[in-house]
Amino acid sequence: MVGNMVDSAEPGKVNCIGRWHMPWFFKHVESFLSSGTAVEYLPIRDYYHRHTRSIFWEIQDIIPFGNNVVFRWLLGWLVPPKVSLLKLTQSQAIKELYENNHFIQDMLVPLDRLGPALDCFHQEVQIYPIWLCPFLLPSRPGMLQSVGDEDRFYVDIGTYGVPHVADFKPVETTRRVEKFVRENNGFQMLYADSYLTREEFRQMFDHKLYDKLRQQLPETTKAFPEVYDKVNRNARI
Fold first, then answer.
1. What is one GO cellular-component annotation here (predicted)?
2. What is the number of domains present in the chain?
């Protein structure tokens, strides 16, 4: 799928995909595998929020029948459900069931390691579709620093949903994926559960400037915890 910004659209080809009764965007894209190529125009707001209603593709696990045309017309305006509402209404048993049968991670890996990384994700979780977003990581000082003295292309690999492997174990599986990413000069997006040890975290993220700043401001070490203490899994329990 490719696209360009335009100021006008051909008559009859505007697709307001963000309206409550429209198909989920990822299902709409999937339909072209059978229908063939086509040209359509998406309003910019609809494009920016193309994955909002379906929470990327996680909504299919929350409301399996949610893309049914009848549901969309009658109740599509309720989607997506508020995360705060889901948390408020879930019991401890449901929370544990969710944590033991769900995997949400974004890992940033060098472009030349994309193939092995996809093999790793397939072996460990088999969650599809997969979010792939290439980006350029500048060679500049900081916690997210590419290897060497040159800018380097990376790819954000995002997997969100229920794993389709028989032996999925959230902690062990995540640890194996983290190990692969760490050994291949990658990075973990820290909104998700991280089971890295403090030493592994420092191996993944360059702390030179961070430590230097904290040393220059001694009261900082007393007032604020390190980044690791804010984002590791135990800090979020």
1. membrane
2. 2
Structural domain of residue 73, as residue ranges? 8-87
**Centroid of chain to Cα 118:** 14
Lowest mean pLDDT segment, chosen from 13-17, 48-52, 62-66, 109-113: 62-66
Instruction: Identify whether residues 33 and 108 lie together within a single domain.
Output: no
pLDDT given at position 153: 96
Q: What is the pTM of this model?
A: 0.84
pLDDT exceeds cutoff 90 at 82: no
* Percent share of the chain, pLDDT over 90: 71
Domain check: are 132 and 105 in the same one? yes
**CB distance 225 to 182 below 8 Å:** no
- Is there a single domain that holds both residue 119 and residue 36? no
